[in-house]
Design goal:
It contains 14 helices and four strands. By secondary structure, the protein is mainly α. A hairpin with a 2-residue loop joins β1 and β2.
C-alpha cells in the first residue's frame, strides 16, 4: 500500500480509529473529528464496551481484577479509544473506582492482597479521573502522593515498597500519562508537578526510551514489541506516543526509538500487533501477528510529530 492507501485502510476501521486519523494524520477540522468521535459510543468497539457496563457504573462486577474486563481496565480501554470526556458513562465508572478503593495518605489502593498503594495503578486512576473531569480531594491527593514517590533517577517504581531503587518504565509512563491528564484538567494545581514531570521525561530520555543507561543495551526485549491496548505495560511506541502528545521536542536521544519504529514498518506500510497481553477479554480488537490499525495509526502519528518537532 502507498501512503494514501494506508490512510484509506485506517479509515475503513472502527470509529475509534477513524476520528484519530482525522485529527492527527489528516488535520481535519475539530468539528469533523468530533462528529466521528461521537460515533464510537454508538458503533463498534466503544459501543460494545459501553453496552457491557453494569448498572452501578462498573464492569464485570469487579473493580481491578480480573484483567482485562474489570472496571479499571475497561474504563482505561475506553479512554484509549477516545470516548468523549463528557460521555455519561465516564463519571459513574470513575466514582466506582474512587469509592471502592482504600484511600489513605493521598493514595488509592484497589488491590485486595497487596498491603500498599501501587504507583502504576494510581497513575492510571489519575489519568481516568482527570480525563472525565472528576474533581475532588482524591484525584488531587493522588497527584500529590505520586510526587512523593518519585525516585532519585526521575522515574517511579510500584515496587518501591519492596526496596526497588531504580525507576520502572511501566510505572513511569503510567504516572507521566496521569500527570499530563491532570495538567490538562487542573492546570493551576498541576503546576507543582512541572519539575517532577520534567525529571520523569528525562528518565525516559536518559534510557533512550528502552535501553540501559549503563550499558546501552536493550533493557528488556519486550519493550521493542508494540501492543495495543497497552494495559499497564510499557513499550517504545507507548513512550513515543506520550512524548508526541506533549510535544516534547526533537531530542537526539529519541532517534534510536524512532529508528526502531521505522524498522518495524512492513513493505505494505503497516505495523503488526506484536504483543497482545494475555488475560480475560470482553472481545479481541485485533489479531496478534497481523497488520494492526492501532499500531499503524500510532506509529504514523509519532513519525509525523517527529518530522515536525522543533
Amino acid at each position: 500500500m502507498g501512503a494514501m492507501d494506508v490512510i484509506g485502510w485506517l479509515m475503513e476501521g472502527d470509529p475509534s480509529i477513524r476520528w484519530q486519523v482525522q485529527r492527527d494524520l489528516l488535520d481535519r477540522a475539530e468539528s469533523t473529528w468530533k462528529r466521528e468521535r461521537a460515533q464510537l459510543a454508538r458503533r463498534g468497539w466503544g459501543a460494545d464496551l459501553l453496552a457491557r457496563q453494569d448498572v452501578d457504573g462498573g464492569w464485570s462486577g469487579a473493580v481491578y481484577s480480573p484483567k482485562w474486563t474489570s472496571t479499571h481496565y475497561t474504563l482505561l480501554q475506553l479512554v484509549r479509544l477516545g470516548l468523549a470526556p463528557s460521555h455519561p458513562a465516564g463519571r459513574p465508572a470513575v466514582d466506582k473506582l474512587l469509592t471502592a478503593g482504600r484511600y489513605e495518605n493521598g493514595s488509592l489502593n484497589l488491590a485486595k492482597t497487596v498491603p500498599v498503594a501501587d504507583g502504576c495503578v494510581n497513575g492510571m486512576v489519575l489519568l481516568m479521573a482527570s480525563y472525565f473531569g472528576t474533581p475532588g480531594p482524591i484525584p488531587d491527593g493522588i497527584a500529590s502522593w505520586l510526587l512523593t514517590r518519585q525516585m532519585a533517577d526521575g522515574g517511579w517504581n510500584c515496587e518501591d515498597w519492596r526496596g526497588a531503587t531504580h525507576g520502572s518504565f511501566h510505572t513511569t509512563i503510567s504516572v507521566l500519562e496521569g500527570l499530563e491528564a491532570y495538567r490538562l484538567a487542573r492546570p493551576a494545581e498541576a503546576e507543582k508537578a512541572a519539575d517532577a514531570v520534567a525529571a520523569g521525561r528525562e528518565f525516559l530520555l536518559v534510557h533512550r526510551l528502552y535501553k540501559s543507561h549503563r550499558t546501552g543495551e536493550v533493557a528488556d526485549p519486550v519493550f521493542t514489541r508494540f501492543s495495543f491496548p497497552p494495559r499497564w505495560h510499557y513499550d517504545v511506541l507507548r513512550g513515543l506516543d506520550y512524548l508526541a502528545a506533549v510535544d516534547a521536542g526533537q531530542d537526539p536521544r529519541i532517534e534510536d526509538a524512532i529508528d526502531l519504529v521505522n524498522s518495524k514498518r512492513r513493505d505494505d506500510g503497516t505495523w503488526v500487533l506484536q504483543h497482545p497481553h494475555t488475560g480475560r477479554l470482553h472481545f479481541r480488537m485485533e489479531q496478534g501477528g497481523k497488520p494492526s490499525r492501532w499500531n499503524t495509526l500510532r506509529a504514523l502519528r509519532v513519525l509525523k510529530w517527529w518530522s515536525q518537532a522543533g
